[in-house]
Amino acid sequence: MSSELRYTANTQLEHLHARYTGTGHADLTKYDWLTHQHRDTLSSIVGHPTLTAYLAIADGACTGRVKYEMTEKMLQPCGPPPRKDDD
After folding, report:
1. How far apart are CA 42 and CA 69, in angstroms?
2. Among candidates 74, 7, 78, which has minimal Cα distance to 42?
């Protein structure tokens, strides 16, 4: 019985990972996860004109400037990646 539950849980998890790429995996670091979250948020803001207009009004800038700044932030939203220790 428990092996069937484990198999079902694993197949459901694999299906979830295949369908939604941002769900991560076991080897995903905190930095990578945060980077994905920030990029998803920024792309959502750029993709929805009402959110872009809202931020433009709040910042006192034009919507083109807000889109440009959000797109530039997508390159490294959390700063440079941390150094990896090769021990």
Report:
1. 10
2. 74
CB 42 within 8 A of CB 77: yes
pLDDT of residue 86: 67
Six-digit token string for 60: 């006192």
4: its two tokens: 């069937």
Burial class (CB in 10 A: 0-12, 13-18, 19+), 77: middle
pLDDT tens across 6-60, in order?
667 778 877 777 777 666 676 788 888 889 889 999 999 999 999 999 999 999 9
Rounded distance between C-alpha atoms, residue 84 and residue 12, angstroms: 32
Q: How many helices (H) and strands (E) does the chain have?
A: 4, 0
Q: Is the pLDDT of residue 1 over 60?
A: no
